[in-house]
């Protein structure tokens, strides 16, 4: 019998939640236009919408908040964060941002020229938006196994080196400002990248004079998978693996709301001195002074402490294995999910869950909405709605993966909560043929999954 690690913490503060009656949830979902992003938090029983900014901070982080230096420039909390980023990630320079997409905006504006191509291991929504908004074309170069939810490749986040070389030969290295390497890959199901692959990508890129930038949002989870799955690293600490990972990048964007374990904030890190000077000039326009970049001093202090806590093995083992606990229950009941399970979420395969719905009837969106109606559990769509429309044709993009993400916040829920979620999903699976497709009532032009509204077909 498989065992799972107990919570490596004690609970000091609790937040009451309520479970509404089914009729109330049905009315709330209809009012929200069958978009789980538009639900009121107070109407949600177990909130698995995202792990971004939903972390429960530690006592040390809350204590750090009390010594926030809110000086407009030169805050001591910035100096602390700067030291910690250099120690744990190894980059020479760092500029804070209000969150990860602020870092994506800065990097894209400074690195991309119209007509460029940015290859990456599967797109992420805001990342691709910033790349395309600045004139680039995104090219997916992830290994083929990543698009197959049932394939159990241990590192489905890996870049296919042949695809990368083909793109270089096709458009020329001068048209590729950088490679965007996500560690882990969210839309593939939270899948990790091997250190062997990171090193190979770095070597190929630098051979052609191309920079490599990591989307480091869940890099600690990636380091855990390396320790568990890559033979040469079983005796390495998470901190040691993390430093080696970052040595194969020229810089990184970071949403601190995930693996830095805070509720707001991010940063852009790099080694290039000239790029750093340009970033410091541009951050003033969009974020704030280079020594706060849209963050309060207290939040920078909490982030610095969170980075040090994130590499604790007891923490990251429980974090990832709690996700596996939920996944194992669903697999035992025959529920189709992305395998192997990732580090931050369980992804339901809506194609196999709802085979009676065609993709243009938005099965993942419909499944997420119905899961809330039946149980009060909030999840989110990661499929055709998130993929958006092709910029040239205006037609819906049709990703191979049509998923519903059950995202586990850090240090928030217990195994008992996972039991409730598992039971709700299993019961819904048993009546899956009753779930109806959806159509748009309102479709925003950009990042439509956040605010679109739907109704049943």
Attribute tags:
alpha/beta, Aspartate Aminotransferase, domain 1, Aspartate Aminotransferase, domain 2, 5-stranded mixed sheet, 3-stranded antiparallel sheet
Question: What report would you give on this structure?
Answer:
By secondary structure, the protein is of the alpha/beta class. The protein has two domains: 22-51 and 313-456, Aspartate Aminotransferase, domain 1, CATH 3.90.1150; 59-310, Type I PLP-dependent aspartate aminotransferase-like (Major domain) (Aspartate Aminotransferase, domain 2), CATH 3.40.640. The chain has 16 helices and 14 strands. The longest helix has 20 residues, at 313-332. The relative contact order is 0.17.
Q: By helix and strand content, what is the structural category?
A: alpha/beta
Element pattern in H and E: HEHHEHEHEHEHEHHEEHHHEHHEEHEHEE
- CATH superfamily of the largest domain, called what? Type I PLP-dependent aspartate aminotransferase-like (Major domain)
Mean pLDDT: 97
Number of domains: 2
Shape assignment: globular
Low-confidence stretches: none
Q: What is the number of E strands?
A: 14
| Biggest β-sheet description | 5 strands, mixed
Per-chain topology:
Blueprint lengths: L21 H10 L14 E2 L11 H7 L10 H14 L3 E5 L2 H12 L5 E4 L4 H9 L3 E4 L20 H11 L6 E5 L12 H13 L3 E5 L3 H11 L8 H10 L3 E5 L10 E5 L2 H14 L10 H14 L2 H20 L12 E5 H4 L9 H13 L1 E2 L1 E3 L1 H4 L15 E5 L7 H16 L7 E5 L10 E4 L1
Parallel strand pairs: 1-10, 3-4, 5-6, 6-7
Antiparallel strand pairs: 2-8, 7-8, 9-12, 11-12, 13-14
Helix pairs in contact: 1-14, 2-11, 3-11, 4-5, 4-10, 8-9, 12-16, 14-16
